Amino acid sequence: MPASVSDSLAAPVGACQEQFHRRWSHLLDPHVRALAWLLDAPDLLDPKAHQWQGKIASYVDADLGAWLTELQQTPEKLQALHRYIGSLPSTRLGLYAEKLLAFYFEQRQMLVAHSVQVRASKNDTIGEFDFLLRLNGGLVHWEFATKFYLLETSGESLQADDFLGPNLADSLGAKMQKILQRQLALSQHPAAQVHLSEPLASVQALVKGWLFYPDDHLRRPAVLGVSANACCGYWCSLSALQLEPSAMYQVLPRQRWLAPAKIALEHALSAADARLALSQHFASDASPVLLATLRPDGGYGLETRRGFVVPEDWAARAAAQRHLGVDKMG
Description:
Order of helices and strands: HHHHHEEEEHEEEEEHEEH
Number of domains: 1
Number of helices: 8
Strand content: 25-35%
């Protein structure tokens, strides 16, 4: 999206949550809710932006609502999903999200192969196909990423590289360059041909995630290449965090970062308890924390807003990292 586009075109903070609750509030299983978000959330990137070279995938399933409702209400299908997720060798959020999509594609009879390693020799791994799918009668290669990035900049014309990961390990721009230049080029390697039953009809990246803006940004600025409808939140330091005394909160564990939270009210935190939990966390851990603000709804707390609370020195370290350039890839 051109950086000159008016800020007013961007979806307001909280729009992603309200849209999700309107459509999916009846879903209670956390894995089903996460899958609903992955399949139905707005894309993170603008597929029309020139910098992505036409390689951003979008996916729409007109029958998704009925399929997810049946999944939750059919015990054997829900158990199959839980077994599928239970086989994960790691708790990494990216692997969890990828596994959820693999289950969906397999159940929908679209999956040809998943996590296919391409090797030039026994000890020489070239790369890995995230997904080989059958779409519209053709074989397609999709790379998949679900990412969380915080905007760190004081500039006017914002770029993808101004978004940094919570732990400063990568940037949105660097991640996308890796996907575009390396991962989506995998099928061109001679060693990949043994895994392809036919020429690929398309090669694209499906990118989901949340973007977080400094809390003093009253409006979301336009960012080159980023969708105006991307799910968004705020970030701030613990000392700058303003909690509403009458609101409820929840610190979200990493595997619950995808879908907007729906939490039994007895597990929600008061503003005072939330601040205490955050203070205790930062006393021994410098990792940013994702905090959800909740509103009561029929015995549950529904997320209305989310933000990363970061250590006091995060902004300075992020600015230094951005100016030096991000070397590590997520």
